[in-house]
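User: Could you walk me through two proteins back to back? I'd like the raw sequence and the structure tokens for each, with a short line separating them so I can tell where one ends and the next begins.

Assistant: Of course. Protein one, sequence then structure:
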Amino acid sequence: LTIRKINSLIDVPFLEGLEQRLEDTKSENDSNETRVISWQEKIFSQYEKHYYRIKENCRTDHQKKYYQMLKSEQHTPRLLFTYVDEDNYYPADQDNHSQVQLSLLTPAKRQSMHLMADLGREVLLFTLTWNPEEGILTVFPDFNHITINPFYQEMRETNLHMYHYALEKSFSADPVIPRSAKQITLRGSSSALKSSTNAANKERFAIPKQLHRNLLFLLEIVAASNFKYDGIHIRYRIDLPDDIKIANKDSDLIGSTHASKQLDGKWHFAHCHELLLNLPDMGEGLSLCLNVYFEAISIDSWCRERYLGHSHLSIPMRSQINETSINFVQLTNLGVMADELEVYLVGNHRRVDLVSFYS
């Protein structure tokens, strides 16, 4: 874990009667720090050091343990410190939506560790959570590098201080594996334990075949606008390339939204479709596309279908999150009067070979 002070935009002015400026009282080493931190390693902040050194403040067993640690060992707090699982620390800053989602999704039996910085006030840099059931360590935000893609933190006091910080993986010959507090370590043969763990993981995760990968396709049809008639629904068909297989045989390649009434100038659907696909690993630079064909249909009071147009969307089969609007094309007769008459008498739903039309 590394933190580095970049600069101060406004220098603290020289005050008469002082031998040096306040900014110069801190050396460069006090603004830069790098630590190799082990899992659940306790590093005290300046506040914690002063608090736990007073015996009267330490009433619980946890506090008494910290009192003995500070009494028997030398601790020199600087910028970086940690909150371990026993500290029961909960971040007060819950403005980050991704961090809130992470805390809601992680199970109750998880272990956590928070990497902090003392920058005039305590600042949360990274949160690490360990799920003992799945054997998964989650880091938020992700690992990075101090010289390539550091994270940025501003501190606004009498002047503006700017910091870069980063968390890198550190490998050792004898790594510390996170364990739950009540876990018992067994010595001897562990083949039965490993086989049962592997079997449990296979049930939770479907591993693709060699030289293949799985792709989860999620489609949401949100809303429509600028159509002439009410009671609209969208029908769609998904066309897969030849080498693509559906992992779940019960999945559908065709679907339809519900019929929607106009509200505030739009027809709202919020219709979702999900497909788990198995595709060959094409390597870098090669990508297949998934084609989706749409039809807009309106149902009149006599339950006849009015044809409002069709459209097409080609989606590259790679990891992405994309939101787009598509325009519909409507096939018409020779004149407006003929179209109106056809709609009124028999409806005008046309069967169009969309694959041939858009190819």
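----
Protein two, same layout:
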Amino acid sequence: MGYQNSTFPLAIYGCLDTASRKLLWLRVWTSNCDPKVIGRWYFDYLYETRMMAAMLRVDRGTETGVMATLHSFLRKHHGDMDPSDSVVYGPSTENQIEIWWRELHERMEKYYKGHLCWLKDQGHYHPHDDKDRMLLAFIMIPLIQKDLDVFRESVWNTHRIRAQKDTILPDGIPNHMYSFPEQYGLEECGFLPVTEEQLKEAATPSGVLTVPDDFLLPEFRAECERVLPDSETIRPHECRDAYIYLKNNFQL
């Protein structure tokens, strides 16, 4: 599932294990509408874990096309089902991921939204100015990614999900349910191995490795780092001042 606010160059996309409700990955970028970017994030996750789910459920949108194709391509190696049947499409409102999104919104988005709206309302940030958008991305994306990592690892995946009357899924802690499904009446029947060779084979036709590792052009990032050489030390409450300082001293 993804979320994007077109006013600001900040888009979040995530992947969740349905049974345990464990968040597998969360990424923030300047856009989540490029299918190759979403596909690259899925590819990176598979490359890191070397395991894939038997089934993949996605929104029926153009941004999920490469991810779905990549999944089907890799599933052909397992021979247990028609690869095209391994991808299920459905609206995001029916996805379990909507539940954690509300939690994430309460914990993080409202805080950042206040700073972002202040910059816009005070005339420091113009949504239709490409330079302003990339300057803001330089400041905000690392900050938000850090918070997403904390939310995923230390908040959501370690909290206890209470029993819900409208679902047959068990209650428990996502990390524990994911690692010990048999203790919750679940079966570990959906994790299949994927090799480096298979991933390399899938990477070329999918085009995921053509996606740049950076959302900024090299010369743009170099100038940002000249102005703010210690940008990794910026704290969330300093984001407004950091952006204004960067914009006032940026010379490209």
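The longest strand covers residues 10-16.

Let me know if you want the two compared in more detail.
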